[in-house]
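Page 42, continued from yesterday. The earlier attempt failed because a stray header line got pasted into the input along with the sequence. Redoing it now with the clean sequence only.
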Amino acid sequence: MRRFAIIGHRAMSQGKLPLNDMAGGAGRMDVLVRALMASLMTSHGFRKDTEVVLHLQGGPGPNRRIRINGAAVKGIHAEERSVAGQIAKILKEISPPKGRWIERSKGIWDSRGDLQDTLQDWSDSTIIALDANGERLWSNDSLIPLESKPLSKIEQNGEEIIVDGIDIGFILSDDKPLESELPDDIKLRSLGDVWLQGHMAIAICHFLLDEGVSLNL
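This time it went through. Structure tokens are written below.
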């Protein structure tokens, strides 16, 4: 499974989402929406081996998490306003107690909590925090294969979806640093010296996993 934790330090966690001012009044919710789309969407559908957890930490009220599973999600389309509309519906609801997930719509769950709670949920995954100052994500001797050899893939048997291969989680922040929020044992990995926007970094992670590039884990 491929997992992406997107941290929105200023992203509103409850209330009426201002769809016409997601960059300002919603606390840079536009950044999270673009990251969500890059994580889950391909040109013609959803990545069924991927899930995303949006961390809304800008209030009012407690920190909130929204989890979206690419294999199950319905009702959103490859357009920012459509995705934001689904988030807006959730923010009108009172967030569930910490540790309890409520499915708000098909494939979209809602809970309280923060990054530490998500890391507990991902305890069986290899966790990478993307940081331009870390070691490169790919191995020193790695090459881009001439034939794609995905590091994770899915098999579908009727309605059952089986994910095979690497189980990896990536942590991405907004414009605020993450260092103080990360456990000491989290691996910091870089996609290069340039600080990329989150949705671009996610696209590169998918490319490396899709092509089967040897990773520095």
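Notes: The chain has one domain: 2-211.
Reminder to self: strip header lines before submitting.
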